[in-house]
Design goal:
The complex is a heterodimer of chains A (about 375) and B (about 230).
Chain A lengths: L2 H24 L8 H13 L5 H12 L4 H25 L4 E2 L2 E2 L1 H5 L1 H14 L1 H6 L1 H4 L1 H30 L7 H29 L6 H24 L10 H5 L4 H9 L2 H12 L7 H13 L2 H23 L7 H12 L5 H5 L14
Antiparallel strand pairs in A: 1-2
Chain B lengths: L14 H38 L12 H19 L1 H12 L3 H8 L23 E5 L7 E6 L8 E3 L3 E2 L10 E4 L8 E5 L7 E9 L5 E9 L9
Parallel strand pairs in B: 1-6
Antiparallel strand pairs in B: 2-8, 3-7, 4-7, 5-6, 7-8
Classes of the chains: A mainly alpha (about 375), B alpha+beta (about 230).
Chain lengths: ~375, ~230
Amino acid sequence: MHDAVTSELIPEMLREYGEVTRAALKRYIPERAPQRHLYDLLADYPQRGGKMMRPSLCIATARAFGARLEDALRTAAAIELLHNALLIHDDIEDESEERRGRPTLHMLHGVPLAINAGDTLTLMSLRPLMENRTRIGPRLSLTILEETERMAVESAEGQAMELGWRQDNTNDLDESDYLLMVLKKTCWFGTIFPARVGAIIGTRGNAKLEPFIRFGFFLGCAFQIQDDLLNLVADTSYGKELNGDILEGKRTLMLIRLFERASADQRARLDAFLALPREQRRPDEVAWVRALMDQYECIDYARRFAHGLAGAAQHEFDGIFANVPDSRDRQFIEGLVTWVFERTQASARAQPAADHATDHAAA
Amino acid sequence: MRRHEASSNGHDHDQSAWDSVISRAVETGYKVIEDQIHQGRHFAQQFGATAFAPGPDDEHAGTDAGHAGSELMERLMHFYSDMGSLCFDMLESVARNPAFGDLMRSAMPAAAPAPGQAKAHATGPAAAPVSIEIVSATATGARCSVEWLRPPHDGALVVSELRALDPGCPALTQIEFQPADGQWLPLLRIAIPDGQAPGNYAGMAVDASTNVPCATILLEIPHPAADTGH
């Protein structure tokens, strides 16, 4: 696929499928009491925008395999409800202060109300999944619920891995550890699950689902690494503070590579820096870590690594979609592989409301 | 966990070294994902063994298929009754079928006998396993029954549209048959469009390879006033 096609088609379809998903979403968030302490909170994050990649991937996959948009719409809405629920809880766990350019929900309303809102959104995501039965039948609905349960467990395990690394100041990590964490924390919900449930809907349960794990894994990992790279090279208009991941002590591929390449003295200093509470990490130390990443070419390394993963994603796409007729939806899914790297500083500026958090929201 | 690379400075990469990064990414990525897929398969097998079937070493393996079928049925009934009356109706109609016990035994993984034990066979013309799924947003009281004439030769059926007695009434055309898949019974799926007229509809399922009639399918769509729900 030509880059020009990708750069136009992807944003266009994200807008298109994002709009229909948001419209469907409104049906599930009621306007009734307790409005101020619950339902206003539920509607807050969805109203702030976002890339809508998950629901778009679900709808596009379903349609690529022959389904109608309406067949996938409830599942897409459920995905977005659950995504926003996880964002609320992630922001609390990560002590984040901003989300999509505004204060996070717990900064606005306090932690107890924010936790309750996240819990409510999680449970409300079940409604459209149950309503699926009137459109795609009980069997496919049950299969999608089973997929949802698996995805939720995988995501929770990934989140626990990363939070545990930070809590224990674990720095003896390699690329396999990192990829496993990203697989669970980001890929399952970001790419694998939307593609799998889309395929289930599109093929009426007849798709072989394992290849979608591989495709979603490679695509999601490339996406995550690129997102982390942008945090180190983009300006503040990207949506997060430059080098914010270093300040947070996030275990990125670049940091893991730095530990691999640094001298023993440098590793000891890095270890001490990451052992500090976030508020005690000084800007000059952050700058030192960033400079060290340049010295050891960790940025270039991660960029190459991401390109390798994207190549594998393309390979997996070719296998899955070899016999699927060409369509706008098929082009969209394939285009995501190269679009990963088009999300540059400039494109980030063009999407001020997009998710730039690197938590569950990377994709 | 990590290995450390000895390096006096960071600028020692040539092009081949950068190319090797790409290879390393692909190799590491496939190793991670294949390990996870393997673990997922293992877990699924374990789950299936404990949830749906006695293990090969179980004392009653091969003779307890009815119990395993009942357990699955109970789980499904519980799930479906939670999901709504429509689905409950659907499974209830399957459960009332006298052939259901045979159907479950013939279709369940649990029915696989232990070595040396007799296999539980479904016998007679009513032995073809199938579950029925009715998809409708409005006709929540619809009921379907299948009268078996003979089991299909190789498990595959072709199902005709369902017609009402009234020739002016549109036929139900969204009807399909899906063969058995893993733990699932073969599925007869009927979609009822919104606004479909109430009444009795009938059709035929024929063997896909021989075209011999195997079953008649009867569907009742009640008048809205008669739909009392569950």
